[in-house]
Give the backbone structure.
Amino acid sequence: MNLRELDPRKHLIDRLESGDKRSDGRGLRGHRPTSIAKGILRDCAGSALVTLGGTKIIAAITLEVGRPPASHPQRGEIDVSLSVANTCRPSPYGRDDTYDVGSAESFVRRTLRSSSCVDREGLCISEGRSSWKVRADVVCLCDDGNLADVALVAAVAALSGARIPEVDVSENDGVVRIKEGGTSVPLELRCVPTPLTFGIVGSSFLVDPTREEAAVADGFVTVVANADGGIVSVCVPGGGAALSPKQLATCMKATVGRAKEVEGAINGHDNGGDSGDGGAPP
């Protein structure tokens, strides 16, 4: 057996301290190659398949008409469901990932709502009577780390391609019906909230940890940012080790760079970035 098998944490720390590449050839600040394919499913309002290295997640958007919440009669709603397909193997490294599935689902839902990427008032059909309920069903097909990051990108990419049908509203009973021969309109996004997770290992931190790296990390920090430089949130899943203010500033800058790449990929301008520095300074 080699050191990687006997003591994977020491093996990773030794590589980081010596300046060696990670086991998949990346440097500390490199994220894995990303691809985003939109509109791959039929019979849904929008869909996307996102691949980050060995992690692959698909998302589908469905719409239904419901009554707006009493507290916000002019708003529609947005919800998220995240599940893991049977094709995903249990982690062989002892710890499954930075987030468990339930926590990842909450993270995606919370980020979509708090970032206001979807104008929920724009989902209102008839104030106090009817509005669109948008649901993102997200399924992890293959998991090699960073489940929550990829799930959020997949949900946002699917939302960006969603279309809302034209409707007729009955003046008598308020019943909403899809207008036959009507024209659907795109679901406009105000922003593209983009996450980037950093694994903390000893005194170093690395971008986009794989499952193997996550299993031996001391802690994690996930930054969510927009391409315009706005920071949506900073999360520390599971607690654990923290970053210094200087390190956190580096992570924020890296995430803004990553957000520009992802927004470009979602809009069809590029392929989401390769395994370079991911926008992070050295």
Q: What stands out?
A: The two ends are 33 Å apart (CA to CA). Residues 275-282 have pLDDT under 50 and may be disordered. Residues 11 and 114 are 39 Å apart (CA to CA).
